[in-house]
Write a structure and sequence with these properties.
219 residues; alpha+beta; 3-stranded antiparallel sheet; 12 strands; globular
């Protein structure tokens, strides 16, 4: 059956209406902004100071670590039982003196003292714990064998070496050791040390006539 012109036009009009009447696709929802990763907190600022020893007018740098105040330089006060590295005064000026344990116990100025084992433990914790405290206490320069540290706490541990019980000096550039005030049952005394090839703050014992560095802590 033939369709007349009116029927054809009506069909075309119906199709056009249906096309226009189709619903538009739903809009894609906007993506939520990515969550921001919180920034890592900055380390607390290093609080430095100075102290002048009235006994010889020598001024030392100091640093606050947690609730402790430490000298951030090795002690350089001449006493019996102490020596300069290789017996050269300029080494005392740069490195401080090396003390036998009995001399170290009384070498710190008034208002300061030789730190105990417990006080060194507190410093170790504040400096990152047993596995990294040595790295964080060492200076950023001056250590041989790629052993420089981060000096995160401003302690400024330098590679000052030591003297053995016979008076032979060694390990400048690669090691530093510091007396504690704690003696060891059965002989000797405890010390802490840092080294080029170690990230730790090592806890060890030595004979009391060994020459080691001294860091004083405030009373």
């Amino acid at each position: 059956m033939k369709m007349n012109l009116s029927s054809i036009l009506a069909s075309i009009l119906l199709v056009a209406i249906q096309v226009h009447a189709k619903p538009k696709p739903a809009a894609t929802p906007a993506k939520a902004p990515a969550a921001k990763v919180p920034a890592k907190p900055l380390p607390p600022p290093i609080v430095r100071g100075k102290f002048t020893d009235s006994r010889n007018s020598k001024t030392y740098a100091t640093v606050v670590v947690g609730k402790q105040t430490w000298m951030s330089q090795n002690l350089d006060f001449m006493t019996n039982g102490s020596t300069c590295y290789e017996n050269r005064k300029k080494n005392c000026d740069e490195l401080g003196r090396l003390y036998e344990w009995e001399a170290a116990k009384t070498a710190c100025p008034s208002g300061w003292h030789l730190p105990s084992e417990d006080e060194w433990d507190i410093l170790e914790t504040a400096a990152g714990g047993p596995d990294s405290a040595g790295m964080n206490l060492k200076t950023t320069t001056g250590w041989e064998q790629n052993g420089n540290g981060t000096n995160l706490k401003g302690f400024d541990a330098i590679a000052s070496g030591h003297a053995d019980k016979t008076g032979i000096h060694s390990q400048r550039g690669t090691s530093a050791a510091y007396w504690t005030s704690s003696s060891k049952l059965g002989g000797g005394a405890w010390f802490r040390s840092v080294a080029s090839d170690d990230k730790r703050l090592v806890h060890d014992k030595g004979e009391k006539n060994t020459g080691l560095s001294v860091r004083c802590v405030k009373d």
